[in-house]
Amino acid sequence: MTEERKDLEEENDKEEQKEQKAANEQIELNKEVVKYEQVEQIELAVQSGEVEPNDPGEPAEHKSHASQVWLGIAIGTILIVLLAFLLLIAPVGYFAIGLVQLIFIIPAIIYWRKNTGIVQGLLIIAAITFLLNAACFGLVMYSLS
After folding, report:
1. Which whole-number Å values give the CA distances from 36 to 32, 33, 42, 44, 78, in the listed order?
2. CA 64 to chain centre
3. Burial readout 63-78 (b: 16 or more C-beta within 10 A, e: otherwise)
4. Are residues 1 and 29 in the same domain?
5. What is the pLDDT of residue 52?
């Protein structure tokens, strides 16, 4: 009887191993189905315009909020440099560059209103420019008096 019992236990072990293997295969299959469904949902969202596709050449971590703020600062700096060149035509505008910059900062903020990081960067560089202009204007006026 002990041999029969051992044979039964071995058969039970083999059946359990087969069941475990089948369960593991089913789990892996379910994971693949879920991944496929997620990919389909993302593709539908991209096609409908709800989200923008990721640039495959740019890692996802570069699209963080902090990098968007720095991008906004860079865009604002470029716009201010362009404004400085335009003010060569009317040099009186240099005294009010902090206010004249509103001509391009407001439309830029409206253009990028959905991208809060870039808007924050634009506001940071606009505030820095305004404060620098106010301080320098005050220094010039103090030295002239």
Report:
1. 6, 5, 10, 12, 43
2. 4
3. eeeeebbebbbebbee
4. yes
5. 64
Paired tokens of 105:
């900062």
| Domain co-membership, 38 together with 66 | no
Residue 116: give the domain boundaries: 60-144
pLDDT tier, 57 (very low <50, low <70, confident <90, very high otherwise): very low
Structural domains of the chain, count: 2
Residues 2-45: pLDDT tens digits? 777 777 777 878 888 888 888 888 888 777 777 777 777 777 77
Q: How many Å is the maximal CA-CA distance in the chain?
A: 116
What confidence tens digit (pLDDT) does each residue in 100-135 have?
A: 788 888 999 999 998 999 999 999 999 998 898 888
Q: State whether 66 and 137 are in the same domain.
A: yes
pLDDT of residue 4: 73
Domain check: are 83 and 100 in the same one? yes
**Considering 15, 36, 53, which residue would you say is the last residue of a domain?**
53
